[in-house]
């Protein structure tokens, strides 16, 4: 996810995407034990924030459907072939799934773009590359892992082995509906676990396709189940279910707390949390290229409509360059093409839904009341479309203890804070309950090392933002969560360490 890939467009025209969208037939049924399960009758409409229209009728799980899915996953784990397969064979299935995701790239990109509003170019070029790449990476890794033999006295043999942890409940949000599902499902499957995936009720359709492509790739029935439904009902039932061994969650910090409580109130399942953020992005006067720093700051906060856990929503700029950098960011914000997610020229699409837009607008209103200065944006736009669009928004003169400075907005709203020295910048950056990510712009190697060490964040980007690779772990400190997605470290979430001590 870089400014360069963001600029990629491809040959399909706006009209062609609209034609394909009309022909799309999304699946709203659950996938339980390898079969479509329409559910017990209740359903909800999946609305597109592009124009407010209903995309599909989606089965709405209650505890009974969650129980059926967990029972299927339990059976597939306890008695099925999946955990017992040679790991490289599991890897082959994941590689086939990666291939199928690429084959269905256009249909999946369209589904994502319609269900949560991101530009089709980003769904197609970024999200689908990320999710196919994730299944490919863990597919390749599956057959390459080894266990340990510990050093002991000669009369013993001590094996330290990693075993699949069991049934995984994966609960994910809507902002990267397939990538974030893939970051849970791919390592869990590679480890030999079975999975019940509950996508967000705001983006349930692409995950349905993922489940069905998994079957086509050769996952045995029950290994990957996909159940749709509301968080407080279906998500809660999964969190409380005694048949779930591991609950892997990505979403808000508030809901993460629920899952910790659900584990305490049920079977003490392991709970792994990837939560919210309020990431600082520090620009020093010796940044290698101030224009690039400003352009990346703007790209970072407006990419994916600002609906990014890692969004650099607090721009911390040295006072001597604060006005110059802010002006450049404001100019970028004003030039951004906000529009139809299906138009390849669109740079910022629709926010996920009306409820979310009103929350974001509430933050804007409160910030103005608190005395922050609105430099640009702040209003709903494209109202004639029936869709959910907001102008890219920049504030400065934001009080450091105001809600805008402290709370996650999860929208295209940037706050700029000037500082006078490095210590002040680090103190400001760390003055957050979150610790997901941070950015730093400097030409000085010592400053880069010293400041990145001092920042309490799971990822620090120096002279860039949102760069990454599957080889590096991703996750948060403080109330941004625990554990790590991506990289071989993700397997730690889905395996249990066992010691076998053999007295010889
Ligand atoms: P959310 O917490 O509202 O929902 C996430 C998931 O939890 C959804 O599947 C939802 O149905 C479910 N859920 C909601 N309420 C629940 C409840 N009471 N009990 C059980 N399950 C429940 O988050 P969202 O609005 O979908 O996504 C935005 C949030 O996700 C932001 O806070 C963002 O920072 C965070 N996020 C974090 C990362 C990361 O990797 N750290 C990545 C993306 C998004």
From TrEMBL:
Belongs to the aldehyde dehydrogenase family. CDD domains: ALDH_GABALDH-PuuC (cd07112). Residues 43-499 form the Aldehyde dehydrogenase domain. PROSITE patterns: ALDEHYDE_DEHYDR_CYS, ALDEHYDE_DEHYDR_GLU. The active site is at residue 274. Keywords: Oxidoreductase. It comes from Streptomyces kunmingensis. This is Aldehyde dehydrogenase.
